[in-house]
Amino acid sequence: KKMTITQKKRMNRRNAIEPIISHIKFDHRMDRNFLKGVKGDKINALLAGAGFNLRKILRAFFLFPNFVFEKLKFLAIILPKMLYFQYEKRHI
Q: Of 8, 38, 49, 66, which is most buried by a Cβ count within 10 Å?
């Protein structure tokens, strides 16, 4: 059976993601889940993903501190304005 273009793209995406999942499992001790039930599985996966993202952020901060600082400065200027406009829309 021949694969469609969409199926090939999904397969390539899966091939790109599987090594990341493997590293998350190894680095965050997901070989054994100590939390009980389906909720425990979800919590464990969520926390492992959060740890993975936090590690990426910290790595970026220590490798490129100026770049990260500029982004944070930008957010500090823009975010309050965005929140203020959202607040105004709700209360008008």
A: 49
24-to-14, 19, 43, 54, 68 alpha-carbon distances in Å:
15, 9, 14, 12, 24
The amino acid sitting at 87 is: Y
Per-residue confidence (pLDDT) for residue 92, from 0 to 100: 58
Count Cβ atoms within 10 A of the Cβ of residue 30 and give its class: 0-12 exposed, 13-18 middle, 19 or more buried. Answer: middle
Q: What is the pLDDT of residue 37?
A: 83
Rounded CA separation 80/88 (Å): 12
What is the mean predicted confidence (pLDDT) over 82-86?
Answer: 68
Q: Are 20 and 13 in contact (CB under 8 A)?
A: no
pTM of the model: 0.48
